[in-house]
Amino acid sequence: MEVIDGRLILGGVEASALAEEFGTPLFVMEESEVRARARRLKKAFANRSVKLFYAGKANPNLRLWELIGSEGFGIDCCSAGEVYLALRAGFSPDRISFTGTGLSAEEMRYLASTGVAVNLDATSQVEMYGRVAPGRAIGIRINPMVGTGSHLSCTTGGSHSKLGIPIDYARQASEAAARAGLTLRGLHVHTGSGGLDAAVMLGTARTLFELAEQFADTLEVLDLGGGLGVPHEPEDRPFDLETYARGVLALVNHWNGSHARPLEVFLEPGQYLTCEAGWMLTRVVIVKPTPEGRVFAILDSNFNHYLGTALYKSYHEFHAVSRMGAPRTRSYELVGNLCNTGDTFASDRLMPELAEGDLLGMVNAGAYGLSRSSNYNSRPIPAEVLVSEGQAKLIRRRQTYEDLLLWQE
What we know:
409 residues; Lyase, Ornithine Decarboxylase, Chain A, domain 1; TIM Barrel; 2 domains; nine-stranded mixed β-sheet; elongated
């Protein structure tokens, strides 16, 4: 972003012009920021044994996936539907990393038909996959019984988590795979999303490398998952990518220098690539003061478009695009237009004096926004544009009222 003469510029395009052309609410992705993040990751993990995959669930837009793929990344998928989309986006099966939970036999048959390698997260799932696709190689997702994440609901390791095979049961899962006629090819771990502590994530990596010693005769892949976070709160410090990368590469080089069977290491960053590249533009529809002194600024967006602020109380900075540079002098409740009191973006947020029709921009909106969108209250889902070098390209059209009928009888 740039601010030039009081105007917010995204990817070389004035934000207010984007709002006028495409309407609001509007998601805006800055191509240059996505590519810069991809290249920083490639530079940090410059090792032929390390492969990078974008966690597609963070933003499942095929044009965005193609952009990231052009930087040499694969796609990390967690459902059969995501695999279908990844194949449609042009990713070959060997560039798709799949880790799922609660898979049905039908989903397993589809996955087996694609040739995509899978990581399974329960012993019964291993047994089922052996019946559906005997003779295949698989990975298993391990729960190291510790977790990290920006919120409890984003923490996917530990005793509270449904995800992964508890590390103490890894041997039983391996034996179940052998009985089912499957080869254990990989171990996977992912303990949470949005982590900012590189030391904690390195500790998890060391745990997985230690566990790998028990299965060194068949292993080909150690998948360290994703979870690399970005700052949201004003006091947050950025994730120390360089420290994490040095630690991971030291583990990779030590293993490959001391074992006859080398390992590939997969990494699956999601929000690290796209969160800070994205904005949501939204207009103030109503300014509603109360006798107690609170002032509600009701926006034309809601938690259908960005669920994190309501569900996880995630913090996002807001800029008054119509009043860039104006002093922040008044506290507002920035809320959505759904019929729910919990439809809140920010509480007691200091902003410039707002008026109805003002354009606002929410930062860090490039991950887990439209990927969690819904039609609650029968409201259409917004458009998404990609901006680069002064040009804007529509990459997801705005839903119409007619679109709401598509799944109706």
